[in-house]
Write a structure and sequence with these properties.
With 320 residues, the protein is mostly helical. Helices cover 75% and strands 0% of the residues. α4 packs parallel to α6 and α5 packs antiparallel against α15.
Length: 320
């Protein structure tokens, strides 16, 4: 509520700048302030009321849809838009939906449940081509009980990818280009190529920092339209809506998990408690919002809502 209220207040006080902005720009703000919070509530309700079987069904559906998307990219590339903005959204939402579903599944996972659906998400994310989703998901699993199996699997996958690149770069160029993860990794390792997307995002990040340095309290709504690009991180909120909105957004992600962890820590006496099962989901959201995603992502808002309930309910975050 603080996040929404402070952001709306900034919009009202920035009415002189709003008049110069295109309609699409304001629609992005409405997505952030209306659709995002609605998806937050959906995530919270889902985490609170769903059974373990329903969570597993969600993960199964996410794995099937992500696999189908990867198959379409390879077999029917003409069905995917060639517009870079639209194409990038396909990869991002497909990857983030799978990552969030898998990590909610991990948080609610029974001890005897098989681990392969959680680990299967890694190669599927590579095929999808969403580098941000892959990096955030691997970072999340490194904070889980699956870290050893993750390292073993990633070692095998990297070996397979390097062999695949060597064989297919000349003989099967279409397959070589099927995954942005594979082509980017190959370009960096073999050609020393620079990631243009990453360089561009670093420039936008610096522009947001410059605005924050100039107007740290209120921010400057519409700054990214005038400088030519928005920061793909939560810093964009600070630059757009001011420090209050930024702090409220960070607390919406971190407050419940941190307070829950402190309660477990002090209630455990001399015995250090095991990391709660919701920690990988927390790490995923932090990595995405700190480095990769614009905060208006409705998928990540859904994950935030689910995390808020998983962190509150001890029964949903048992000790290993």
């Amino acid at each position: 509520l603080v996040f929404i209220g402070s952001s709306v207040a900034t919009l009202m006080f920035s009415i002189d700048q709003v008049a110069y902005l295109p309609q699409q720009y304001l629609l992005h703000s409405m997505a952030l302030l209306v659709l995002g919070p609605i998806c937050y509530l959906f995530g919270a309700v889902f985490a609170k009321r769903s059974t373990s079987q329903q969570v597993n069904m969600m993960l199964t559906i996410a794995l099937a849809l992500a696999s189908a998307f990867s198959g379409v990219v390879v077999l029917f590339p003409e069905m995917i838009s060639t517009d870079e903005v639209t194409k990038g959204s396909y990869y991002q939402y497909a990857g983030d939906c799978l990552g969030i579903a898998a990590l909610i599944g991990y948080a609610r996972r029974d001890q005897r449940a098989p681990a392969w659906p959680i680990l299967l998400a890694v190669p599927i994310l590579i095929l999808i081509g969403s580098r941000a989703s892959l990096v955030a998901y691997v970072a999340a699993l490194m904070m889980s009980a699956m870290v050893l199996r993750l390292f073993l699997g990633m070692g095998v996958l990297i070996g397979v990818i390097l062999v695949f690149v060597k064989v297919s770069a000349d003989t099967l160029p279409d397959l070589y280009e099927m995954s942005r993860v594979v082509s980017t990794l190959a370009g960096a390792l073999f050609d020393g190529a620079e990631d243009a997307s990453l360089s561009e995002r670093m420039v936008f990040q610096q522009q947001a920092l410059n605005v924050i340095a100039q107007q740290p309290i209120t921010g400057s709504y519409g700054y990214d339209y005038f400088v030519g690009g928005y920061a793909h991180s939560a810093l964009d909120l600070w630059a757009q809506y001011g420090v209050v909105a930024f702090v409220a957004f960070v607390l919406a992600i971190c407050a419940n998990p941190c307070m829950n962890w402190m309660r477990r820590l002090f209630a455990g006496g001399t015995r250090r408690p095991d990391a709660p099962r919701y920690v990988p989901l927390l790490v995923y959201l932090i990595v995405q919002f700190a480095f990769f995603r614009h905060p208006e992502s409705v998928v990540l808002f859904f994950g935030m809502g689910a995390l808020s309930v998983l962190a509150q309910n001890h029964r949903l975050s048992p000790r290993r």
